[in-house]
Request: fold
Amino acid sequence: MSATVVVGLQWGDEGKGKIIDSLCEGFDAVARFNGGSNAGHTVVVGGNKFAFHLLPSGVLQGKKLLIGNGVVVDPEILLKELDEVASLNLTPDLLVSDRAHLTLGPHKFRDRLEEGRRGAAAVGTTMRGISPTFADRALRAGVRAGDLLDDESLKSAFETFASLNRALISGVYGEDGDAIVKDSMDRVKELAPRLRQYVGDVSKAANDLLDRKGKLLLEGAQGYYLDIDYGTYPYVTATHTTASYAPAGIGIPSQRIEEVIGVIKAYCTRVGSGPFITEMGGQAEEALRRKGNEYGATTGRPRRIGWLDAAATRYAAKASGVTSLALTKVDVLGGLDRVSVCDGYIDGSSLRMEPPSTISALRRCKPHYLEFEGWPDLSPEAWRKLGEGGISALPKNALEFARSVEELVGVRVRYVSYGPDRIDLKELK
Ligand code: IMP
Ligand code: MG
Reply:
């Protein structure tokens, strides 16, 4: 045993990066198992803000870093992040799975073309080429990190990749695919000598570490409701975001997972299109967006904001085997008279307790709310000062809110976070 998974139970941006950075002291390695550079994991240390898209959030703690086969890797972004951390005098001990697929120029180009083609029905992707990379993987036309280690295998991967991407870009989208495909292959060859040193067998490394009684933290990207099956399809990302994908995306047995920490914000946000039952709208939303700095870490887009959906969280926590919750950004809700939490969905004359699987049914549903008394609006310094007095020194109604969430979701709230820095976090006993 001794692998812990941290996943988001909403639409991403729950504060996983911060929770991982705060918790990873007791771990030997931090691994990413899904998504790609669409993720934006923000970590704040000593007032300095870092946003990582591919490097696991343990990077600033000098942990061993693993990027599993379940991740799609954009070599340009990976090397850029490595340069950034090098400028902080950190030399990450990084291993990228030889089975991880590479996101290349034509994937990013196709992401834009496909979103454009869909017009009003666009998913609102991050334009990072994620779904075309996963599509090429499924079409058996991908280029994998391990191909960089073997000229013959790179040559043959390039052949299938080039022929499919040329055909799609010119045949489907009517653009000239030749140049972009050729440029991307030249670029991979140029970057290969630098990338090779990081590529290897992540599954073996992770299993060896666990056999030696090492502790592994598995970092999920995005959130439960962006999962390709369990999210609000088709307004989802291109892969799995659930805790149960963690072992598959890194190459360890599922029995190794001892703990699953589900991260939720005290309210909900989502970027991109798709149904959002508890969306607030109006001035309340705008005020929270500014206060909580709710703008995409990857795209800068304003995030849509809604009340906490405890029914959706309960469903996600149950299916993910969540053993404890981390509740973030309770400070941001401070200053409201009343705080709403959705505990079910009104569908005509019936009350549903689980989110429906289709977006048309979701659009029909109205949230059923419970209301809680608010807590004061305090400065970040005031929150920190209160936190220094221990968990029970935090505002009473904020703690009661945490207890109610615990009851509604059916899983204990173990951590309460009330500021962006790694120290603004307390364990709820
Ligand atoms: P894609 O993953 O770029 O294909 O985007 C699909 C959907 O997932 C869009 O609604 C994106 O905004 C959303 N998404 C992808 N990654 C993240 C993330 O890390 N945080 C929040 N939303 C994300
Ligand atoms: Mg994010």
